[in-house]
Design goal:
Elements (H helix, E strand, L loop, with lengths): L19 H35 L3 H29 L1 H19 L5 H33 L4 H24 L6 H17 L20 H32 L3 H4 L1 H24 L1 H21 L3 H15 L2 H9 L7 H29 L2 H17 L8
Helix pairs in contact: 1-3, 1-4, 1-5, 1-6, 2-3, 2-4, 2-13, 3-4, 3-6, 4-13, 5-9, 5-12, 7-9, 7-10, 7-11, 7-12, 7-13, 7-14, 9-10, 9-11, 10-11, 10-14, 12-13, 13-14
Length: about 400
């Protein structure tokens, strides 16, 4: 089978056709990515209802969201160890069912103490699933012999959009009291069960560390992932405020800024594998870093709504395939199993998602939101200058 390399490849290159079993495994794990994204999107739509049901303040809600992120970060290294010991398929299935169950619990519980416990376990299930499904995806990518990781992340992004839309429909139909979440959770669990027989079975790694403090290449890749997730986390919380302050947009219109980022990211991820195959991972990452910087600068300097929204769309296009190529490289870190490398890099990466919003807020408090997000444009430059780290040996 043709092996992947970082160099550009002509459109006329002839690639060996993956086996039917490998292709079935590809679509099975793609569906798991889709369901994971849909679950997160569905939860996002239910956040205001959960807050009202539990009767908690906005400040307490912030701690609840922090608890979910903390659970995910705490579980990611454990997922790497479990995947290395039992194989990724077993962890994907267990974590997938756990994620389905806890999504239902989280969106139905009203007692504050129980809500925080459910939030931590929900976050942990998401962390376990994230690392194990990415590791399984890297195994499928290796078996196929051609870049595939970006499409998996495309399915996750598409799932997020579907989940958010589904949440809106469910709530609008009067099922936001938890019944809609229950139906969705049952559907998720059933689909994971149907995927079980097709998910690629790879033997547990017999070499390399499955559970280790990030160091060397893993640490470097993790820090680059941290910067990318920091950009995404900052846009989730601060893009709407930037548009209202800089362009005078109404809150409803300002929300379209993050939508532009999300839609272009999802779309570009489905083209990412072809781009990596043709131009190489390092070139794709270089272009991504430059685009992140340019998009952020356009968004923060413009006083016109459409131009700022175009900046967010450009960030989505540019950032779409940076994390997938970093994760693909993480699965090949020398001296670590694929699961261990991914766990180390993902843990650092998601720390950026957690830490960036409050840091941006602190900078904005001493200046303004445009300056704070403008500083973040330096992350794109750092990513572009260090793109060679994802080249294959």
């Amino acid at each position: 089978m043709t092996t992947m390399n970082d160099g550009a490849m002509n459109d006329d290159a002839v690639l060996a056709r993956p086996s039917a079993t490998v292709e079935a495994a590809r679509w099975a794990i793609s569906l798991v990515f889709l369901l994971n994204g849909a679950g997160i999107g569905l939860w996002a739509a239910h956040v205001p209802l959960v807050q009202a049901r539990a009767g908690i303040s906005t400040g307490t809600l912030g701690f609840l969201l922090l608890t979910i992120a903390g659970g995910a970060i705490a579980a990611m290294p454990l997922s790497g160890w479990l995947s290395g010991r039992w194989g990724t398929r077993a962890v994907v299935l267990a974590a997938g069912w756990m994620f389905a169950v806890m999504s239902v619990v989280l969106m139905n519980v009203s007692d504050v103490t129980a809500l925080f416990v459910a939030a931590f376990v929900f976050g942990a299930s998401n962390g376990l699933l994230d690392v194990s499904m990415n590791t399984n995806a890297s195994e499928v990518e290796t078996a196929r012999g051609i870049p595939t990781m970006s499409s998996f992340h495309g399915f996750y992004s598409l799932g997020g959009l579907i989940g958010a839309a589904l949440g809106g429909i469910v709530i609008g139909a009067g099922f936001g009291d938890g019944r809609g979440a229950l139906a969705a959770g049952i559907l998720f669990a059933v689909v994971v069960a149907l995927c079980a027989r097709f998910i690629l079975v790879a033997p547990p790694a017999s070499h390399g560390s499955h559970f280790a403090v990030p160091r060397g290449p893993a640490l470097f890749l993790g820090l680059l992932a941290l910067l990318c997730f920091a950009v995404e986390g900052a846009l989730v919380d601060w893009s709407a405020l930037l548009l209202t302050e800089r362009t005078g947009a109404e809150p409803a219109s300002a929300a379209l800024g993050y939508s532009a980022f999300s839609v272009t990211m999802a779309a570009c991820r489905f083209a990412g594998d072809r781009l990596v195959l043709r131009f190489g991972a390092a070139r794709v990452m270089t272009a991504g870093g430059i685009g992140i910087c340019a998009g952020l600068l356009l968004a923060v300097t413009s006083t016109h709504f459409l131009l700022s929204a175009l900046g967010f769309a450009l960030i989505g296009l540019a950032a779409a395939n940076v994390v997938p190529v970093i994760f693909s490289a993480a699965a090949r870190v020398p001296g670590m199993s694929a699961a261990g490398g991914l766990a180390a890099v993902a843990t650092l990466g998601y720390a950026g998602l957690l830490l960036a919003p409050p840091i941006i807020g602190s900078i904005a408090a001493h200046s303004n939101i445009a300056v704070a997000l403008g500083v973040l444009s330096l992350a794109g430059i750092v990513v572009a200058l260090n793109a060679k780290v994802v080249k294959r040996s």
